[in-house]
Amino acid sequence: MNPDATHSAVLIALDWGTSSLRAYRMGPDGRVLDTRHLPWGIMRLPAPSTDGPMPASAAVGFELAFEQACGDWLRAQPGLPVIACGMVGSAQGWAQAPYLDVPADPRGIGAQLAKVDTHRGAMLHIIPGLLQRQGLANVMRGEETQVVGLIDSEAGAGGTVDDDLLVGLPGTHCKWVRVRGGRIVEFDTFMTGEVYAALRGHTILGRTMKDPAAPDDAAFQRGLEVAGSALGQGGVLSTIFSTRALGLTGQLSAQAQPDYLSGLLIGHEAAALRALLDARGMPSRIVLCGDEDLCRRYASALPHFGLAAPTLAGLAAERGLWRLAVSAGLIRQP
Amino acid sequence: MNPDATHSAVLIALDWGTSSLRAYRMGPDGRVLDTRHLPWGIMRLPAPSTDGPMPASAAVGFELAFEQACGDWLRAQPGLPVIACGMVGSAQGWAQAPYLDVPADPRGIGAQLAKVDTHRGAMLHIIPGLLQRQGLANVMRGEETQVVGLIDSEAGAGGTVDDDLLVGLPGTHCKWVRVRGGRIVEFDTFMTGEVYAALRGHTILGRTMKDPAAPDDAAFQRGLEVAGSALGQGGVLSTIFSTRALGLTGQLSAQAQPDYLSGLLIGHEAAALRALLDARGMPSRIVLCGDEDLCRRYASALPHFGLAAPTLAGLAAERGLWRLAVSAGLIRQP
C-alpha cells in the first residue's frame, strides 16, 4: 500500500546544519510520516556531475542535496510547503536568513522567514537565527527551533510553560537558553564540544590517549571533581594539561584520558554556568535536549556544581519546525 | 683563520625540543662560540637514506640529527662533553631521563643526568625533567634548564637571587615557575599557546579570521578587557565564541580576530594566575623569559589583572645548559 495515498503530507521540514541534513515529511498535526538522514551538511555538500541537469552556480551543491532530501516527496505532492532551520541560513549557507534580536517568541520568529526559489520550483523557507546584543555579542542558528519545539512540547504536556526555564542544548557548541513566559530572553554559548575535539585531535593531549571500550564514568567523574575543587582554580587552560601529566606519571591510563578530559571541560563549563546563574538568578527548572550520551554527562555534572538536576527532553527540532511553519501560515491546521 | 684554533671549545650543548634543535659550541666560562638552529625536533627527525652508514634502529633519526648538529665539532675536538635538555629526554625522545621531584636546585638536577652512547662514540648527557606530585600532577622538560639559566644570570648580575621569584616562560605551554632561595619549588602549566593554535587551525573560529598586517594591539587589549570584566564570567570556553559572534555582527574585523582571541586566552590565563597567587602569596618579583612578541603580550596582560609588571629576560637555555654541565662535573672551570 502506498503511504502517500493513506497519509497525505502537509509539510516538508529540514534540519540542515554544518555536518548533516535531516528531512521530515510531516502529516496533519505534525506527525512525522517519513525521515531521512543525509550527510550533506552545508560544509560538505554533494559535488555536481559535470554533465548533470543542474545549473553551475554556488548553489548547485545545495540544489543537489535538496533534491536528494525531498525531490521525490515534492514530485508526489507538488506544492507542499518546505521549511528549514540551521546553518543553511548562515553566510556560508544557501541564502542568508536575518538574525532576530532577543527577546524573541515563536510567533515573531515564524513571521520572518527568508525565502529561496529552488531550481525545481519549490519555495524553501528558512528560519532566522537569534542575536543577543546585550553583554558580549552572541548568535544562534538552528537551536532556536529546538527551543521552540521544546516550548511547544512543554505547553502541550502540562498545558502551561514554566515561567522561567533554562534549556541546555549540549553539542559542538552548547547553548544555554533562558526562556521566560514562552519567550527566549537570553543565551550563552560554550564551545566545549568543539574544543574537546580540537584538543584531542590537534594537541599533544591526544598523543597519549586511547579509545575506551565503553564510556569511563569514573574518569569522567574524576575530571568533574578536579574542575570543581581547589585543584581547578587554575582554570581550564591549566587543568587540561593534567590529562598528560597524570598519564606520564602512571596515574591515569590511556583509555581513561578521553573521559577525564571530557569531565574537566564539562566541569569547567558547569562551574561557569553556576557563576552566571548566581549573578542572574536561578531558573525554576533546567531541561536538557540533545544527544543522549552528552545529556547524560551534563545531567551528572550540574548537581556536582550546585545546580538543579535537569529533566531530559528528546530532540525537538521537528516539533519546532512544525510549530514555526504553523506560525508562519505555511500550513493550516484543521 | 680557523676559529677552532683560536677558541678551543669545552662543551657542546643542545636545546632539543619537540619542533627544533639548537646546538651551541661553548668556550671557557660558557661563552657561545658557535650556534646552529636545525628543524630536527624530536617529532620531525631527519629520515635515513637506505644505504647510509647509520644503524637501522629507532635511534637512527636521533643519530642523524646529532651528527648534523655537532658531528664536525666533535671531529675537530674529540672527547668534548655533550649535554642536552628538552623533549629529547622524554618517552618519545632518544633516551628517557628521569623526572626529579620538586623542590629541586641546580646542583641536584646536574647530579642526575641520563647517558646515551651515540653511534659516533660521544656520550650524550640528558638533563632530567621535573615532576610535581603535590596537588594536580605536573611535569616539565626543558624549562627547568631555562630557569636554571635565569637563576644563574640573576645571581651573576646582582650577586644574589631574589628570595621569591616567579618565572613565566610563555610558549606552546606557558610554565609559571616559583623559585625560592635559588630552588624551583612549584610550577603551573597553561596550554594557552597550543590551545590558541588548535582553535585557530581546527575550529570554526579560524574560518572567519584573516592575518593582520601587524599585531593588532587594540584587538589584543579588547580581548584582555573582556576576560577581566563581568563579560568574562562565563570563562574561556564561552568568551572565545564572541570572536565569531562579534565578527558576524560587524563589530570585529577578520584581521582583528586573531589578536582578540589571543587577548582572551592570555587574559583568562592571567586571571587564573592571579587567583592562584592570591591563594599562595605574591612573589617579590615576576620575570618573563621567552619569545619577544609573546613576552610583550604577557607583560601587558599581567598588570591588567593586578599583578606586578614583570621584567623581561632573554632566552636562558644556553646559560642553563652551561650551569648544569658545570654542576655535573662535565667541565672544569679554570
Characterise this structure.
- Chains A, B: One of its GO terms (molecular function) is 2-dehydro-3-deoxygalactonokinase activity.
- Chains A, B: InterPro entries: DGOK, DGOK_C, DGOK_N.
- Chains A, B: It comes from Bordetella genomosp. 8.
- Chains A, B: One of its GO terms (biological process) is D-galactonate catabolic process.
- Two copies of one chain form a homodimer.
- Chain A has eleven helices and 14 strands.
- Chain A folds into two domains: 11-189 and 315-328, Nucleotidyltransferase, domain 5 (2-Layer Sandwich), CATH 3.30.420; 191-312, Nucleotidyltransferase, domain 5.
- In chain A, a hairpin with a 2-residue loop joins strand 11 and strand 12.
- By secondary structure, the first copy, chain A, is an alpha/beta fold.
- In chain A, helix 4 (143-158) packs across helix 11 (317-327), helix 6 packs across helix 9 (257-280) and helix 9 (257-280) packs across helix 10 (292-304).
- The first copy, chain A, has a six-stranded mixed beta sheet, sandwiched between helices. A five-stranded mixed beta sheet of chain A has the order 12-11-10-13-14, sandwiched between helices. In chain A, strands 5-8-9 form a three-stranded mixed beta sheet, with no helix packed on it.
- Chains A and B meet through strand 12, helix 5, helix 7, helix 8 and helix 9 of A and strand 12, helix 5, helix 7, helix 8 and helix 9 of B.
